[in-house]
Amino acid sequence: MRSERRPLRLKQYLAFPLKHDGAHTLGIVVLRVVSAFLPTAKMLILARFVDEALRELRQGAISEKLLGIAGMLVGVLLLGKAVELLMSYLSIHFSTLVSAAHERRLIEKKSRVCFSVLENAEDYELMCRVMDDQSDRMVAAFENLMALAECLLRILFVGLAVAGMNLWCGGFLLAVLLAILPVAKKCGGESYSAYEAATKYYKVSRYLRRVLSERDYVGERTQYAYTPHVQELWDEAQEQARLKMKWATKKNMIRTKLLTGAIAVFAVLLYGGMLLPLSRGDLTAGDYVSVVTTTAQIISMLTWSFAILAEKFEENQRYAEDLERFLDLPEEQAEAAAEQRGQLVLPTVSQIEFRDVSFCYPGCEQPVLNHVSFRLNKGSSYALVGKNGAGKTTIIKLLTGLYTSYTGEILVDGKELRDMDAQTKQGLFSVIYQDFARYQLTVRENLTLGCPVPPEESAIWQLVDSLDLREKLDGLPEGLETNLGRLEEIGIDFSGGEWQKIAIARAVLKRAPILIMDEPTAALDPLHERAIFQLFAEHSKNASISILITHRLGGIRSVDHILVLEDGAVCEEGSHEALMRQQGLYAALYTEQERWYR
Amino acid sequence: MKNKPWYRMWPEMIRQVAGACPRMFVLEYFWSVVNGLALAATPIVLEQIFRIILESETERFPFAALAGWMLALLAVYLTSEASAGFSEYYGDIYSEISAKALYGNVNKKAGRLAAIEYEKPELLNRLEKAYPGAFRTRKAVHVIMDILTLYLPYFILYGIYLYHAHPVLPPMLVLIFLPILGSQLLKGKLYARLEDKTAVLRRQKQYYAACMSDKEYAKETRIHGLRGFFRERYRKAVQLFNRYTIETGKKAFKIDMGASLLNMLGLLGMIALLLWLVLKRQIALASFVAVLTSVRTAYDQMEEIVQQRVGALSVSLALSRNYTGFLAEEEEERSVLHRAELDTVSVQNVSFVYPDGTQALRGVTFTAERGDRVAVVGENGSGKTTLAKLLTGIYAPSAGSVSGGASAGMMELRKGSSHLFQHFNQYRMTAAENIGLSDCELKDPERMKWAMETAGFAREETEEIHLETMLGREFGGTELSGGQWQKLAIARAIYRRADLLVLDEPTAAIDPEQESGLYHAFEKCAEGKLCFLITHRLGLVKICNRILVMREGQVLDIGSHAELMQRCAYYRSLWEAQAGQYGLW
């Protein structure tokens, strides 16, 4: 599902603020225009003031007129301050609201992208670039545009005013200042692309830094004492990045400074050139003095801040491109609205069928599933068995709708999965993942999150008992309302095993017709392992269809039907006994594992 | 020492930063001084030009005198641009050089801490802040050097110029400026309070956003349809967050307004005074214009120092403590680096308590000899992994002793042992680096190939993954499956020259087809060594001659499988739980 075309590039830095905080945005635009005109006003008044003062000082008599002009000068100064204050007032709301809206939009989008996008390294990087610490970006980019526009307007106004005094001078001023704009813009762009060459090395050095300092690596780091060696690798990457940067910096600096140097030369040429009309009396001394001071200020503005503005401008443009790509990432179907969830009827399921299903992960050429066909029927429990990479987990990902780009058909009660609405799909599955989520919410929320209607208290406690959790939960300060994790001031943490039980309880309480457990016991001791398998056996009775994935073949003997996968296809299926009689792959695997316990 | 006053931190900070490359440090700030002086010289030269123009008689226009000053102006402009360019250029380069030096210091420091330190949340917190702290240290030094070498020369020269125009002007400028300084201090406090108030909200915001959208939560959030639930939570947190932010913004605005009012009054006073002086002919009209226009620049500069530099400085200073503080962290004593023969490992009455107070081991005593293959079994949380880390000298016992014979203490144990960690690492490097990291000096490709083969890499696999293959998708390498990463970690562990080998859960991610092959591989690797195998897969005890049964941090029993089946009920129950699944009990 592709979203409609979005406004392009820079336009969206205007369109977005306008849409989300139109009044303040317009206010800021108006104030910027006023602010851009002030230097010109000041210049014109100053010229009159100097001429008048010169005249009156020579005559030795001070008139009220001079004081009046001085008053106007002060007035412009006050107006400038007022505009500044007003702008900062508007910004309070503006920046908060627009940043929040931007952030919300990003999160909303990310929460809707297809699951395949989350697992795709390139897309994932794009999302990081667009989202990490970027909530202020929209405001910053808008401000940048405004500042640049004000810069240009200022020059334009001053140029026009000077042209009013003397056409040649004004023309020269405008021509010079406008000629540097494209060059300045180019500088920003060039430097950006040069810096990009260094980012590859920075990425490596950032990764190595993690190896050198993070807790995840401390065991091997201490045991193997590899810090000096990895530090060398880090040094090397950092040095490479630095050299790339150095080269880029040098090139960029020479370019920028040649440009600003040229501006300085032209400015002095202008000052010299203006002496001619001045000496002829075509230009008053006041005009001359005020034009020179104003130009000097514009030059210092250009050399100090324009380069930075141009560089940021370029960065924002890149960001806009990324943002556009991000917003165009494919989305999955919308989920059921919160208010509809209560009415979700959880149907029973009588059959799941994979009909000639093939699948490749996006960006990979090797198919993970290769013309897989099988049926799962109501009232039975199933196990998926096979080597790593044989496609067990992929089958679950397809079945639960995380990926939709398969060929063939997946039918639930004869209905193609892709044609079902999200609401129905959500009601179908209770899944316990190996990497289950640890929600930092209250215990109750953790348990009942998946339930469309709040389960009965007795059902919760019955399950708590069967998971052997009662003692733990009774010991909590606020019982089921205790916060888990560290999000709230008071929160407690569970051990890995306890979290896993919570995840199991969450899935079971949902009472969906299809129960799935994906590798629940990889890191569990024998006693826990057996307990989990027993739980599965117990709760699979309540579900229409239950599916277990595991490497621990002893745990699946009690499962009704076993599907053995090899190279992306089902190579054997049947009950444990039948498969053992068949003397195929399953029997070989099972016997090999069992042998160690004889 | 954590709370050394800021002014006493400077020498150390400057030493740290400047030490990375003193020559370039001096160059950067030399040009900065030149730049500051050139900036202040501009209004001085302009005033000379104005003076000549405003005082000239129209009949004889003084082209010659003006030409000289025009050239001087050009020289000032060009000097200013060139010096700014140089100081910026050296500054950019220098920030890279110093970043490398300072980050490198943190890297090295992290490597010198005892592993147990990483179990302390406070340390992790400090470590996490040490890198930004290093960055801020550079930043703080840069700001202070900027103030000293750019702004100070500028204000000194400009001050002299103002004083020259009229002695009352410099103090007046400072006076006008005071309200801005005051408002900045007040606002700083305001925003610090906002930060305190919103810290929790910020965390909540981030967390609920993560629950809505992060990959970690995506599967469950989507399958249960929880997006709306978290969106609502997120929205509430954002609403409150925004309300506080806007409230504080409005308060800050009031402060700004007050300060601006005072400030404007001062500026008006100054203009009135200047005007009066002109009319009284105490200063020239040219000076008036030059001062009036340059005062604005000077004022902007001051505002920039206070609003941006000083603001950044106080933040940077506070954060740079995280860097200096981290470098002062206590290091682990690592005296011995020679390899000692480890023929025996003796664990005497060992207890171990984690920094959070969890007692992982109590009164553990046993010995094992070269040639022993010891399986360590027990429930999750019974202390097996902790014991493994004590055996290879990663942790020091809280009480009791672990030694490798008479002369080998913790460091010798560490040096002479190898360890496959339960949570092994996946290095985004080449396969050769991945294996070679365990013994960096060795650099033996043949041994690497042997290690890969022994760890169970099939021939087809090694054809695809040879030693120079870059691994991990991040840097465009080949991604391995969980099982392959595990085999690579095994290869790494056995590549290291060691007398003592500890394998912690070596088959968690291995599929049943390969499990058996690996068991035999372990048998081979353990030959002539002392080997500990920590496992939940009790079948593995078949290749071990001794089994250590752990329960709640204690050694319940030690013996052969047959002996334990006879006398240890707990071991029997473990065995039964697993073997029973295969219908063998």
Based on DSSP secondary structure assignment, what is the total number of beta strands of chain B? 9
Shape descriptor of chain B reads: elongated
Quote the distance from N terminus to C terminus of chain A: 56 Å
Helix content of chain B: 55-70%
Question: Rg of chain B from C-alpha positions?
Answer: 35 Å
Characteristic terms for this protein:
heterodimer, A: alpha/beta, 4-stranded antiparallel beta sheet, 64% helix, 10% strand, B: alpha/beta
What does the model show?
- The complex is a heterodimer of chains A (598) and B (585).
- With 598 residues, chain A is α/β, with parallel strands linked by helices.
- Chain A has helices at residues 11-59, 64-112, 115-119, 121-131, 137-165, 167-213, 218-224, 227-280, 285-327, 338-341, 392-399, 422-428, 443-448, 457-466, 470-474, 496-510, 526-540, 576-582, 585-595, and strands at 351-359, 369-377, 380-386, 407-412, 415-416, 429-432, 514-518, 545-549, 561-566, 569-574.
- The longest helix of chain A has 54 residues, at 227-280.
- The radius of gyration of chain A is 35 Å and the shape is elongated.
- The model of chain A is unreliable at 1-8 (pLDDT under 50).
- Chain B is built from 17 helices and 9 strands.
- Chain B has helices at residues 6-18, 22-55, 63-112, 121-165, 169-213, 215-223, 227-279, 285-327, 384-391, 410-416, 431-436, 445-454, 459-464, 482-495, 512-526, 561-567, 569-579, and strands at residues 344-353, 359-369, 373-377, 399-403, 417-420, 500-504, 530-534, 546-551, 554-559.
- In chain B, the strands form 2 sheets. A 6-stranded mixed beta sheet of chain B has the order 5-6-7-3-8-9, with helices on both faces. A 3-stranded antiparallel beta sheet of chain B has the order 2-1-4, with helices on one face.
- In chain B, helix 15 links the parallel strand 6 (500-504) and strand 7.
- In chain B, helix 5 packs across helix 6 (215-223) and helix 5 (169-213) runs antiparallel to helix 7 (227-279).
- The radius of gyration of chain B is 35 Å and the shape is elongated.
- Chain B starts with 5 loop residues before the first helix and ends in a 6-residue tail after the last helix.
- At the A-B interface, helix 1, helix 2, helix 3, helix 6 and helix 7 of A face helix 2, helix 3, helix 4, helix 5 and helix 6 of B.
